[in-house]
Amino acid sequence: MVERAAVVAAARAAGADAVRIAPALPLARTADALGAAFARGDLAAWPFDADYARRASDARSLLPGARSVVCIAVAYATPAARVGRGRGRVSNYAWSLDYHRRLRALLTTVAAEIDRLAGDVVTAVACDTAPLAERAFAERAGLGWIGKHTNLIAPGLGSFVFLGEVVTTLELAADAPLRKTCGSCRRCVDVCPTGALRGDYTIDANRCISDLTQRRGAIPRELRTAIGDWVWGCDLCQDVCPPTRRGRAGGAAFLPLDEQTRAPDLTALLRLRSGQFKRRYARTAIGWRGAAILRRNAAIALGNGLDRAHVPALATALASDPHPGVRGHAAWALGRIGSPRAFAQLGAARAGERDPWVRAEIDAALELRRPIEVFQAR
Ligand code: B12
Ligand code: SF4
Ligand code: SF4
């Protein structure tokens, strides 16, 4: 028989900052909550449906015969120095080596030890990409509570923690859920610049900057200003969260790879090509996307910087970036900066632009000139 204490000790030895165990029973409340979120369209950019809601709330869909879920948290926050002018902001979780690799190595070590103790293969591991409602199982295991920013907050660690699970067919003594909520606090809800958090522990992920900066395609115009200088992810709701501010920092392994990864120079990012992208980002959690998405995000952040010195870089992107998505957002950024030179560049680019969506973006940006001209004529 494998003792629970041996499993917990193995997880601790492998580097887990907190370990709790949930029974692998289907989570009926989670199936309902996920189903309701998908039906509302809260995660419209994701391929989640009613079938995913059912599977993600039942660990047996990952491992037939599963009886226990060993839930693990690893703290990752490292100090965020201020971001200077002309630089973009990258979320804390993405500026070090890819956490998927680290967590997978940790979980595989724990799973191998459980298999060794059991004398058989009795485990499967999950981190981020598996169809498993990780926060809900962590909540059921008493690893923490789900906050109004929708992240799991682990007592003493806060919410800047990665989650991972070892699902096993072994029956291990389970922990009880915590009886904690956020009470009357609403700091995360009030700070969110896009209004993504509703305050009832749900999120409209379509409005979340983390989702917007990772998604392909056009970012809705009405949300671009609120993105500010974020070029990958967003930490605002967790930065203000009291238990997270008091939480433990992550180890040295989570320090930024270098300054350009932590707070990229935006004009350099606007020129990023595929080869450079692979060299810099393949080892990070940004590596699953491509260079064009970062160039698009750099264009938005430069527009929000409102610095006329960046008009030439944006004009070059508008005239010559091979990706229409980047050209269109560069047009928006020029309109947002709104200097006479920016409008002149927009006018010049319009004649040569063949893509109808980019032309529409140029036209919308040129529209912004009208109130200024009217004002100047007075
Ligand atoms: C899709 C996804 C996203 C989407 C949607 C986020 C979201 N809130 O759902 C986007 C791209 C926006 C995103 C952003 C981020 N993500 Co993300 N994401 C995921 C992923 C792959 C699936 C989550 C999902 O199914 N969402 C759908 C919602 C409806 O379900 P849910 O969050 O699992 O559960 C909710 C409800 O079901 C309900 N619920 C269910 N059961 C119960 C039970 C009780 C008692 C209660 C009260 C509620 C409740 O409350 C939950 C929270 O709202 C998970 C990995 C995984 N497989 O779980 C990582 C994951 C949730 N992300 C993670 C991280 C780190 C982030 C970011 C912090 C990264 C960043 N800095 O940019 C942000 C946080 C933004 C935010 N405020 O949520 C971590 C969260 C760690 C933590 N401490 O909670 C995860 C677990 C990955 C990991 N293995 O570490 N993410
Ligand atoms: S990550 Fe940013 S945009 Fe998303 S909910 Fe939190 S504060 Fe709002
Ligand atoms: S900021 Fe306040 S309301 Fe939001 S998750 Fe943290 S404790 Fe809860």
Structural notes for this entry:
The strands form 3 sheets. The chain has a 4-stranded antiparallel sheet with strand order 1-2-7-4, sandwiched between helices. A two-stranded parallel ribbon has the order 3-8. The mean pLDDT is about 95. It is elongated, with a radius of gyration of 23 Å. Helix 14 runs parallel beside helix 16 and helix 16 runs antiparallel to helix 17 (about 340-350). With about 375 residues, it is an alpha+beta fold. It has 2 domains: about 1-255, no CATH class; about 265-378, Alpha Horseshoe (Leucine-rich Repeat Variant). Helices cover about 45% and strands about 10% of the residues. A hairpin with a 5-residue loop joins strand 5 and strand 6. The protein has helices at about 5-15, 30-40, 50-55, 100-120, 135-140, 185-190, 210-215, 220-225, 235-240, 240-245, 260, 265-270, 275-280, 290-305, 310-320, 325-335, 340-350, 355-365, 370-375, and strands spanning about 20-25, 70-75, 90, 125, 145, 150-155, 160-170, 230. It is built from 19 helices and 8 strands. Bound molecules: cobalamin (B12) and iron/sulfur cluster (SF4) (2 copies).
